[in-house]
Amino acid sequence: MRYMLCYAVKAHSARAETEYYEKFEDAVMKYTVLCSNCDDVVLADTETHMIIRHFSHRSDPHGCAVTNY
Description:
The chain is of the alpha+beta class and about 70 residues long.
């Protein structure tokens, strides 16, 4: 499989889930869903060993911060 999704199921969890996809479109669709439900999601290309996108959702005392790398 070429594309990997790794995501934290709960905030501050030591456990992460991983899913693999052959088609980029399938990985992007799942990445989009995970970004709305998880605090951290990473989409990576396993052939080039590169992170394509990292989503991180954090709350602070002044509101909410969402970061995409």
